[in-house]
Amino acid sequence: MSNSWVSAVLWGGSMGLAVQASRIAEKLNIWDLISTATYGLLGIALSVVGYLIFDLITPFSLGKELVEDKNIAVGVVVAGIIIGISIIIAAAIS
Question: Where are the domains of the chain?
């Protein structure tokens, strides 16, 4: 008896997801996809530019510290900088 209940719940949930997906597909158009891709690429490009600027203002080479020396502390700082830059870019774009 419990197997039929579980299958009914799973089937009903999957039908709900299918209906939700069809509603999303109805509202989605090509311009939304182009806009999303454009803003995504712009955000990635600006993040790279921010990283390069941060690399220029540091007194040492970030690439050397990360790749050759495997400096974990520099990796954590760079990750924080990239996340911070990305949050600022996301706020500016939206």
Answer: 29-93
